[in-house]
Design goal:
Helix content: 25-40%
CATH topology of the largest domain: Heat Shock Protein 90
Family: Belongs to the heat shock protein 90 family.
Number of helices: 21
Protein name: Chaperone protein HtpG
Organism: Pedobacter aquae
CATH superfamily of the largest domain: Histidine kinase-like ATPase, C-terminal domain
Binding site for ATP: 32, 36, 77, 82, 97-98, 169, 339
Shape: elongated
GO molecular function: ATP binding; ATP hydrolysis activity; ATP-dependent protein folding chaperone; unfolded protein binding
Strand content: 15-25%
């Protein structure tokens, strides 16, 4: 049996294209070939289970070996094997039509995966690193003869009688000069560990030396001996392939440790398992969030039939869930996946919606089942829920029942509960319910205490996403406004149409304004004399709610750069009814008036953390001199 021929792609340009455009990601050749080998073993196992193969299966496995001197890498399996006719069918006739059109279309391609993924060229990725590829194979079929196939990277091939004596296939790569980095134990181990920790077929890569107990010496000390063992790559158990009923909490936690060895235990997890209208399994974990949110992104691993593909899962997992950890496995996503594929594929969009739905259902279940425990987790999961409510309308509709507000007294309320709580005390003259919030309870404590004196409640909004969440909730809830507690003096935060009487005459008001403007002497601070409760602070410094919100969004890169570039502008409200103002007016000389005014203003800044540097030093020195 000997035959020569030409691979039926009608062009001489296919291999240069593969070599050139796949070079940036050339390690995927090993992923492709080992995956093919594993598939071959799974298929023979399936045939045996159906009674279509009655021979001895033996221990099904894939083996990777390399020879640095001969410059070869060999991928072997004891799966189905192939006949010469099957080689012609599966190897020579690449599964696409119009090869000339293919070459023309992709001659300028930049995405390596786009080429391989679209046309099923997995086997041909071998030529990314090889100057010649040889196949030695023997089919499982009765009476089959061994066959070999050799191709040197041109479109010419040779089929002849093979040398293999047992069922299965060897793919032998003769590594080219540019790819000799792969003729390394370390390099190959690294790639195999990356892609095949959970491969369903036993994967062997050479041997490794381990220490084993070997009795004791005469003093009773334990002795050890070195033992050579198979180096098995895929020892980890892929729990996402098991039924949730067969797993305990300890199994999920142990698996999490295998994925993320140095992480704290997760808060909880969701086991995904669906077979219609697409196939998907997986486990998603809710981690405890750290300050460095970006560090925790890209921790979801995407698999296809237990072979790792990528941890870039943005199009499969909704953006707001990118901080989750775990595994998703779908055979409906090909190994050679590209971003363009993900964005266009209908199954991917369905998977995205399904994951959103499952996360919402899990959170709703936790909330209903054990609300106190759910509230304890809110500091960690709140950012997920709020981000989802902002970015996904379908998620918002479900999450409005389990999304929580937390106030400065560490109490938790659903959206509906909170409106009921505050509407009696915090409805303004126009019928708007005003929610007050703080981003920093320590710095804004004076404002919080002032609000509480009027029986107002103050929400805690101190996560990176809360600035956007505040605006979103305001748009969603009818007749609701949100104001930061330091956006104005307390009497003006919720305008109920009530007017306090002014203790100062018109001339006195003008005089006080002049004294403070001269003492402050900063254009960014606009002074106004207000009629306020005498118990309120003598001076309050605020920034308009709208302006502050726009500046906060600009600082987060929210597309408000115009506001971010504007200079800060503050309102200085002088409590005309406070006794200190009367004291300033009664002072004997202008220098005393100025000193008192400046001290009162600096106290207001100090209480908000706005007094720094030389101004803070000057304030301390003045305070010492006044003691």
């Amino acid at each position: 049996m000997q035959e020569k021929g030409t691979i039926s792609i009608h062009t001489e340009n296919i291999f240069p294209i593969i070599k050139k455009f796949l070079y940036s990601d050339n390690e995927i050749f090993l992923r492709e070939l080992v995956s093919n080998a594993s598939d071959a073993t799974q298929k023979i196992k399936r045939l045996a289970s159906l009674g279509q193969y009655n021979g001895e299966l033996g221990e099904l496995q894939v083996e990777v070996a390399f020879d640095e001197k001969k410059k070869t890498i060999t991928i072997s399996d004891n799966g189905l094997g192939m006949t010469a006719e099957e080689i012609k069918k599966y190897i020579n006739q690449i599964a696409f039509s119009g090869a000339t059109e293919f070459v023309e279309k992709f001659k300028d391609a930049k995405d390596a995966n786009e080429i391989i993924g679209k046309f099923g060229l997995g086997f041909y990725s071998a030529f990314m690193v090889s100057e010649k590829v040889e196949i030695q194979t023997l089919s499982y079929q009765d009476g089959a003869e061994p066959a070999s196939w050799i191709c040197d990277g041109s479109t010419e091939f040779e089929i002849a009688k093979g040398t293999r004596t047992s069922r299965g296939t060897d793919v032998i790569l003769y590594i080219n000069a540019d790819s000799e980095e792969f003729l390394s134990q370390y390099k190959l181990q690294e790639i195999l560990d990356k892609y095949f920790k959970f491969l369903p077929t036993k994967l062997v890569f050479g041997t490794k030396t381990e220490s084993e107990p070997d009795g004791e010496d005469k003093d009773g000390k334990p002795q050890y001996k070195s033992v050579e063992k198979e180096n098995i790559i895929n020892g980890a158990k892929p729990i996402w392939t098991l039924a949730p009923a067969d797993l305990k909490d300890e199994d999920y936690l142990q698996f999490y440790k295998e994925l993320y060895p140095f992480s704290e235990d997760p808060l909880f997890w969701i086991h995904l398992n669906v077979d219609y209208p697409f196939n998907l399994t997986g486990v998603l974990y809710f981690p405890k969030l750290k300050n460095d949110v970006e560090f925790q992104r890209n921790k979801i691993k995407l698999f296809s039939r237990q072979v790792f593909i990528t941890d870039e899962v943005k199009d499969i997992v909704p953006e707001f869930l990118m901080l989750l950890h775990g595994v998703i496995d779908s055979p409906d996503i090909p190994l050679n996946v590209s971003r363009s594929f993900l964005q266009a594929d209908g199954n991917v969009k369905k998977i995205n919606s399904y994951i959103t739905k499952k996360v919402a259902e899990k959170l709703a279940e936790l909330f209903k089942k054990d609300r106190p425990a759910y509230e304890q987790k809110w500091n960690d999961i709140g950012i997920f829920v709020k981000y989802g409510m902002i970015s996904e309308e379908k998620f918002y509709e479900k999450a409005k029942d389990f999304g929580l507000f937390k106030n400065t007294d560490n109490q938790y309320f659903t959206l509906e509960e909170y409106k009921e709580k505050v509407k009696a005390a915090q409805t303004d003259k126009d019928g708007n319910v005003v929610y007050l919030y703080t981003i920093d309870p320590a710095k804004q404590d004076a404002f919080i205490q002032s609000a509480k004196k009027k029986n107002y409640d103050v929400l805690l909004m101190d996560t990176p996403i809360d600035n956007h969440f505040v605006s979103h909730i305001e748009n969603k809830l009818e007749k609701v406004q949100l104001k930061r507690v330091d956006a104005d003096v307390t009497d003006k935060l919720i305008d109920k149409g009530e007017k306090l009487e002014h203790a100062l005459s018109e001339d006195q008001t003008k005089k006080v304004k002049e004294i403070f403007e001269k003492a402050i002497n900063k254009p960014a601070y606009q002074v106004n004399i207000e009629a306020m409760n005498p118990e309120e602070l003598p001076v309050t410094v605020t920034m308009d709610e709208f302006m502050r919100r726009m500046k906060d969004m600009a600082a987060m890169g929210g597309g408000m750069s115009f506001y971010g570039n504007m200079p800060d502008s503050y309102k200085v409200a002088i409590n005309g009814n406070h006794k200190l103002v009367s004291k300033i007016l009664q002072a004997e000389d202008e220098s005393t008036q100025a000193a008192l005014a400046k001290q009162a203003f600096d106290l207001a800044l100090l209480s908000q953390g706005l007094l720094t540097g030389a101004d803070l030093t000057a304030f301390v020195n003045r305070s010492v001199s006044l003691i």
